[in-house]
Write a structure and sequence with these properties.
6 helices; single chain; elongated; 37 strands; 10% helix; 530 residues; 12-stranded mixed β-sheet; mainly beta
């Protein structure tokens, strides 16, 4: 911070943050999806507008201003920390225009009704490249928090993180790590965790070494109208329940859109995740990530891993070098089935399963995928389809829709029967089923649209690595374990995954007593009528 401005800025911020109660701070009105951008106060009376952000959000004249006299290059760390300390309820805190340096993590504890805004993604840029902290922003606890109209660059670890918040809205924000995608970039861009009523919209995430837009161990989620570009994972929903992901763009990532259930987390499993009306294309970046996300095959449009109750429909999945959609059990991550009770018994007792159930793909448009499949997770399968080992007896284009089938087969052969003993009473009460694949527990793909032009039309395939019927197992290894069959057929024939699942219920986000999503402010949105 320039010394000539220091005293003036801190005096202003301290005075404002010490006792200012904002009665009308333009909270969500739920009518136009722009957080009260019509300039009306919470009480319905017009307030004088200090400025309007590039997204149309009106900033009232009585807002708390952070370092209003700052100029490009100033360090605003202290002013920002003071402004966000001991906040009154429903505070509206405004960052200045320009590009500024922040050298510490900004931590906000138990805020209620806070709106933190800049003037726009390009107008307010915070540079954390010299920060001594880890996360750029971290919101811990609280409710009804909005972060908007600002960009966070070069966070050492995560961009904007929220944990244990009931009501978190991130809109018109950007998290960016410039240059090439590298392993030493920060992990997560937008990062709500263990939260409820999560609304992420109109955001931009670029360069994350894990996930650009991530929601984990949360409930009641809407992720819409975002762009995730050149991350390892573009958009990821992990161990979360009641999520709608729609009208997003995922481009240039290693994997475009991911739905995971991973073992060992406090929230053991998720479900009721709908992925619809998104465009996932050219997700062919080299994977520089670590852990399970580091196993995502480069060139994957969407990956559904070890989870249940997922509906994916009306998406455009194009130009992904490995596959449009991969549906895989955790057994591709860890194939040591005998040690699952020892390694994962506790988390399985809480309801996690390595298998998949109730996944339904329909009415997706698929074109120009599978021309250069890669990735260690799928390499044996890739080798098989590229040889004479598959059911066609000659090299085939890698499937546009790939289902490994191994969990279903092992369940049907009785090899997962012992898992039932691991299910705790709480998991049983939640209806968790460790001998799955009965009626209604299927993986289905039908009515998907082959958008390849001739003569490449025949190359849009559906592949099943293991047959689900034990009677079809004709090849085994020396210990009697089934070997992959590498079944394949044209996607339009629906030979292997020809079934229908019940449609899933829409997610509902209640933020500041307004309803968002397909049953709320997007009720008339075309994507919600699909």
């Amino acid at each position: 911070m320039r010394q000539s401005h220091t005293f003036k800025k801190l005096l202003l911020i301290t005075a404002m943050s010490g006792g200012l109660l904002l009665a009308g701070c333009d909270g969500d009105d739920g009518k136009d999806g722009k957080d009260g951008a019509d300039g009306q106060s919470a009480g319905g009376e017009a307030s004088s507008s200090l400025a309007v952000t590039t997204s149309g959000f009106a900033i009232p004249g009585d807002a708390i201003l952070v370092a209003p006299d700052a100029v490009d290059g100033d360090d605003i760390t202290e002013a920002l920390s003071v402004a966000l300390f001991d906040l009154p309820e429903d505070a509206l805190v405004v960052l200045p225009k320009g590009r500024f340096v922040v050298t510490e993590s900004i931590v906000v504890n138990s805020a209620s009704g806070l709106t933190l805004t800049g003037h726009g993604i390009h107008e307010t840029v915070l540079d954390f490249s010299t920060s001594n902290g880890d996360d750029a922003f971290r919101f811990q606890g609280g409710n009804g928090i909005t972060v908007r109209d600002m960009a966070v660059y070069e966070a050492p670890k995560n961009g904007i993180k929220a944990t244990n918040v009931n009501g978190i809205h991130m809109t018109y924000t950007a998290t960016v790590w410039e240059g090439e995608l590298e392993a030493n970039n920060g992990a997560y861009g937008l990062y709500p965790l263990k939260s409820q009523n999560v609304l992420l919209e109109n955001n931009y995430a670029f360069g994350s070494a894990d996930a650009g837009i991530y929601v984990g161990q949360s409930e009641n989620i809407v992720v819409r109208n975002n762009t995730a570009k050149q991350n390892v994972a573009g958009i990821e929903i992990e161990n979360s329940t009641m999520a709608d992901v729609y009208n997003n763009i995922a481009v240039g990532n290693s994997g475009g859109i991911l739905v995971f259930d991973l073992p060992g987390l406090d929230k053991a499993f998720g479900g009721n995740v709908r992925i619809f009306n998104n465009h996932a294309y050219s997700n062919n970046a080299a994977n520089v990530g670590a852990g399970v996300v580091g196993l995502v095959p480069p060139g994957t449009g969407a990956l559904i891993l070890a989870t249940s109750d997922v509906e994916m429909y009306n998406n455009q999945l194009t130009d992904n070098a490995t596959t449009a959609v991969a549906i895989t059990s955790y057994l591709l991550v860890d194939d040591d089935l005998a040690n699952y009770p020892a390694n994962y018994g506790a988390t399985m007792g809480d309801g996690w399963s390595p298998t998949l159930k109730n996944v339904y793909l329909h009415n997706n448009t698929i074109a120009r995928n599978g021309d250069d499949p890669q990735g260690a997770l799928l390499q044996p399968i890739i080798d098989g389809y590229g040889s004479n080992m598959n059911s066609k007896g000659s090299p085939q284009t890698f499937p546009a829709i790939l289902y490994d089938g191994i969990g279903e087969l092992l369940s049907n052969t009785g090899d997962l029967a012992g898992f039932n003993a691991l299910v705790g009473p709480d998991a049983q009460a939640d209806g968790v089923n460790y001998d799955p694949y009965g009626a209604g527990d299927q993986i289905c793909a039908n009515s998907n649209i082959n958008a390849n032009p001739a003569p490449a039309y025949d190359e849009v395939n559906t592949g099943l690595v293991y047959p689900d019927d034990p009677a079809d197992v004709t090849q085994v290894d020396g210990e009697g374990n089934p070997l992959p069959h590498l079944l394949i057929d044209q996607m339009v024939n629906n030979t292997y995954l020809n079934c229908v699942q019940p449609r899933l219920a829409p997610a509902v986000v209640n933020f500041r007593n307004n309803i968002y999503g397909c049953t709320g402010d997007d009720l008339a949105e075309a994507a919600c009528a699909l």
